[in-house]
Every structure is written in C-alpha cells, then in structure tokens.
Amino acid sequence: MKTSLKLLAGLLLISNFSFGQTFTKKIDSIIKDNYKKNPEVGISVGFINNNEAYYTAYGQLNADTGMAINKNSIFEIASITKILTSNLIAQAVAEHRIKLDDYIDGFLPKGYVLNENLKNKIKISDLASHQSGLPDIDFGKLIEQNPQQPLTGVNEETLITIINNCTELKDYGKYRYSTIGYTLLGQILEKLYNKSYDEIIRKKIITPLKMTNTLTKDFNVQNRTAGHNPNGGTQEFFNWNVTAPAGLIKSNTSDMITFLKAVLDKKTAIGKAAILTEKTFYKDKNREMGLGTNIVADDKNTIYLKSGDSMGQSSIIFYNREKNWGVIILLNQRNSKMRQNLLTAVYETVLK
C-alpha cells in the first residue's frame, strides 16, 4: 500500500511538472511570435499557476542601452492601479472603517460641498464600479495641452471645482469610466487612515508583499522601460499628482505576480479583500463590474481582469480564482489592440 501511495504521489508530481512545462512553452511561444511580428514593442509577461510563477520577456529597455527587458523591468501599469485602490477600499471595509453602501458625503475631505441634488445618493460602491454619474476630468483636452504630462495642472482645487459645480448626475447608475471617482476613493482612504495614499498603499500592499520594484514617487531607475506612443514616439512616464489612486503605479511582472499570489490566497488580507472586489456591483448587457474589476464569465470560467493605458504603455492583469491561475502582460507602447490580441491568444490557446 505504501508503495502504491508513493507511486501515485510521484505520478502526480510528474503530471504537474509536465503541465507546467506545457503551460510555459505555449505562452512563451505566443509572446515570442508576437515580438517577431512587432520587434519595436517590448513586452514582459508573468503567469502563475497553482502558486508556481513563470516569466518571459522580449525587447529592449530603450534604444540607447540595448539592455534586454526582463521580469524586473519597470513599466507603467496605469489604470491597473485602480484594482490596488479598490483592494484598499475592501480592506477598509473588512476593518469596519467604512461600508460599501455608505454614502460618500461624510467621507469627502474638506472643501467638497455636494449640491442638494447629489446628497445621500452616491455610494462608495458607485465610485468603485464607475456608476456615480459624476463629471470627469477631460483627458482629451489635457492631452492636447500637454501630451507628455497631461495631469501636471490637475490639483485638488481642480477636483473640488468639478464636484462642487455639479448639480445633476445625468447618468447615475449607468457605467461610465471615471478617473475622478477613483481619485475620490483615494482621498476617502486618506481621511479614513489619516495618512497619504502613498503611505497607505505602502503599508497595506507594497511593504507586506515586499514589492521592492513597485514605485510611487521616484521613477528615475536604471531598469525603467522607455514608453512609446502609438506612432512610436518616445513618451514620458506620467506624473499623476492628486489623481494617483487612478493610475500612478509603476511596477514589473515579478512584483505584480507577487500581488496576484496574494490575491489568489484567501488567507491573506489582500486575498480576502479581493474576493469582495469580485462581487457584482454593476451589470448590463455589455459588461459586469466588481470594484474596479471587470468580470467576464462563460459556462466554464469566470475571469477577473483590468487593463491599463498611459500615453506610452499598455498593460492587462487577469486571473481565474477557481482554477488558481493569473497573468500580467506589460507593453512598452500604447497599443490596446496588441494587448487585447495577446489576452485572447493566451486565454483561448492555453488557459480556457
């Protein structure tokens, strides 16, 4: 009997190893083929299966150094920052500091004065699922004014003016992607903890997980990738200023896989919070939303995902909690079409 058990354990080990090898080779083949067709676009990919991490990367950090991109190379994860912010909100809920169905009125910093039509209407969950109905920052106009650093002139006074001048929520309860919503969530977190957003995210996510290459302030590091706009021109990393909770973070595949491990571990504070963010807070015929997380389901799988775009880089993170796998894809060019094609190829070919 003991011999049979040992044999079974050995077979299972070989089977898992074989699956891991196949899993790795298939994804690497997809990424390599993409790079051959688009050698101007650098790419770094991390994937996790049953807590085992794998990495692949192609391209150069920039045209000057000739250094190869690897799992430690720094990219802009842009709006993927929002799932970190929503995780912090969910952690605050777990700590009984706030409830998702609380109205935002009493949690906003001084200076914000909601119009009577807006009072006791917008909930925390509305901000986090992009259905608050609040007006947003005009990114298109800001990019026209300063394509390298469009958020330079956006400060708290800008936000206060936008919110205080709002007299009606024209599309409350309907999905409309919102930068200002996540900026307000960050400010609410600052009021709850009496700390800066930077201090909060470091204390609750970055430091506990030892994400040493996840940056919030100084981005002038040697392993930083050069960003490129859709036409191939060089693009600076964004300084998000007051809108940091909506897109600030710079990171790499190694650290983001560490984050995914925590997300998929139900025993961690981050994992428990992530489960709350995965609940449905908005749904129509076109989309289903958790807290900052898109939910895509078919008859076999439920995938949680979030993409990110700056003016010079594109990224996406997606995972399947039930099957215990996750993927992070980082590109050093703003190219949402390529990102989507890679997502589709990896999912349909390997993970489905």
UniProtKB/TrEMBL annotation:
Show where the Beta-lactamase-related domain sits.
Answer: 31-343
Keywords from UniProt, A to Z, are: Signal
Q: Which Pfam families match?
A: Beta-lactamase
Return the InterPro entries for the record: Beta-lactam-related, Beta-lactam/transpept-like, Beta-lactamase-like_AB/R
Does the keyword field hold Signal?
Answer: yes
Report the leader peptide range.
Answer: 1-20
Keyword Cell cycle carried by entry: no
Q: Which domain of life is it from?
A: Bacteria
Regarding protein family, the annotation reads: Belongs to the beta-lactamase family.
Q: What is this protein called?
A: CubicO group peptidase (Beta-lactamase class C family)
| Protein species of origin | Pedobacter nutrimenti
